[in-house]
Amino acid sequence: MLFLNRTAHILHDDNARVFDTVGRVWRRVPESAEGGSEIELFDAVRWLQRESGKPARAPISIAGPRDASAAELADAEALGHGVAELGLSVLCGGLEGVMTAAAKGAHAAGGTVIGLLPDADWRAANPYITVSLASGVGMARNVLIAEAGLCLVAVGGGYGTMSEMAYAKQFERPVIALQSAPTMDGVDRLGSVEDALTAIARVALNMDGTETAWR
């Protein structure tokens, strides 16, 4: 269970661990882990991102194919919307398919969407991208998408998505697979967008201790 003392700006759990919003780690501080009201996981992330003054600034990376199925597009749009509602930004490849769907969902929720394009022209981005970064490095931009996010969520995909997933694992980022995303050791395959958002919320609060303190 999570508890929030809004007056003291302290988020703690029922094991007397306090979330250090600067170091992004949980520390056992019994004298501080007192008071406050019980808070749901998603609401705790919204507090972190919108009220704490020290939000997680790294985005959530979303990857997937350009030629996505209708189900993959629907999940990508719902995922982008949910990430933005949590107050987190979205990072994607900025083009068509899953990238457009995720950007559309986040845009509809008022979120920030960063498109890291393989092209040298920022105008190639889909219309829902907030910040268009024209890398000009082609598919090598997959490395940057994998590295830059708190975690990576793959919604379907083939070899290009597989490369992003593999790089993310190499960089010790949590990787989540939805729909027909490639199977890979160490990847959490989940059955729904809601499950993925729960996993993302846990990553945002570093509840499993997977995020290194410098991020």
Can you give the mean pLDDT? Answer: 95
Query: What is CATH's topology name of the largest domain?
Result: Rossmann fold
CATH architecture of the largest domain: 3-Layer(aba) Sandwich
The CATH class of the largest domain: Alpha Beta
Strand line-up across the major sheet: 9-8-7-6-10-11-12
The largest sheet, given as strand count, sense and whether it forms a barrel, is: 7 strands, parallel
The number of helices is 6
- Report low-confidence residues grouped into runs of 5 or more: none
Strand tally: 12
**What structural class do the secondary elements suggest?**
alpha/beta
What is the CA–CA distance across the termini?
25 Å
Order of helices and strands: EEEEEHEHEHEEHEHEEH
* Tally of distinct domains: 2
Q: Which percent bin holds the helix content?
A: 25-40%
Measured by DSSP, the beta-strand proportion falls in 15-25%
| Overall form | elongated
